[in-house]
Amino acid sequence: MNSISNIWLHPKTSAAGLLIAVVTICSVLSQQGITLGNAGTGTVVALISGLASAFLGLLARDPDPGTQSNSGSTAKLGVLMLCALLVSGTMPLAGCSETTVAEDIVNWTPSLESAVATVDSTAALLVPADAAIFTAATAGFDAAANLLVAEAKAYLANPTASVLAQLQTAVVTFQQQVNASLLSAAKITNPKSQAHVTAAINGVATIVTAILSLVTSISCKTAVAQMAAASTVKLAAVRPYMDENKAVAMVASHYGEPAELARVQVEQVELNAAQAGF
Question: Using CA atoms in the order 228, 231, 236, 238, what is the torsion angle rounded to 10 degrees?
Fold first, then answer.
């Protein structure tokens, strides 16, 4: 009975909980390829999720200044809404264009070039033996980054299936190089060297993972399966060497959003990648 009475005592929270459940269920259905039919340029599942997210936005309004006692519950509700909106954001919502995703990919490229430049300068901070291991592990980063940047810009200018295929190959190739470098760099045991190496490679890894997630979001299931099959060094193997806090900070800074939201995004991207076979 307490649960039923709480619905009437806290209608806003109860409504938000129901909408969050709707968004989450729609996300799961979408990931499993269940669409429930088409609605306009999208699917029924995407439409339902979008409407639920919109209603969540209507609920997320500032509290009455005179009701300070509800500030804690309002803050918690806000966090739940952000999480639900993020989950819905991982779905191909109606009206979301491939051009928008392509622009997002290209927007990551300056950060990628900067991260690779940091890798290039990191060897000078290491003792000779560690520098040799690090240099060998990251030898292909410059060429891979240049190719990925070029393919990203090419796809934005000409978003065709053939150009997308080239972008898919470029991002998977770079992702595999980064994963392999994380495993190779683990051989460095000097604490100071390891700190420099981990920070440098993780900077590149975060951006490549973000771009990989964006590319898979506009790729068909067959293409994603082929990309995953080409990924022989899996996420599970390099997870112990990944710096989630650095990834969260980079994502939050790039999108100008709270760290709490960025953390959920990072975790969701990693989960999606693992489920897809990367």
Answer: -150
With tokens 């009437």, the residue in question is 8
DSSP codes, 75-113: HHHHHHHHHHHHHHHTS--TT--HHHHHHHHHHHHHHHH
CB distance 215 to 224 below 8 Å: no
Q: What residues contact residue 226 under an 8 Å CB cut-off, 6+ apart?
A: 168
Q: What is the pLDDT of residue 19?
A: 57
Asked if 195 and 127 touch (Cβ cutoff 8 Å), the reply is: no
C-alpha to C-alpha distance for 150 and 144, rounded to whole angstroms: 10
Six-digit token string for 105: 């990919």
Q: How many CB atoms lie within 10 A of CB 223?
A: 16
- CA 192/CA 134 separation, integer angstroms: 13
Task: Look at residues 8, 163, 152, 10 and name the one whose alpha carbon lies nearest to residue 72.
Answer: 10
Query: Residue 167 has which token pair?
Result: 């972008």
Tokens of 263: 């953390």
Task: List, as one string, the DSSP characters of 97-159.
Answer: -HHHHHHHHHHHHHHHHHHHHHHHHHGGGS-HHHHHHHHHHTTTHHHHHHHHHHHHHHHHHS-
Least Cα distance to 233 among 179, 174, 178 occurs for 179
Q: What is the pTM of this model?
A: 0.69
- Over the chain (278 residues), the average pLDDT of each successive run of 10 is 55 60 58 55 55 53 46 45 45 55 95 97 95 95 97 96 97 97 93 94 96 95 96 93 94 92 90 92
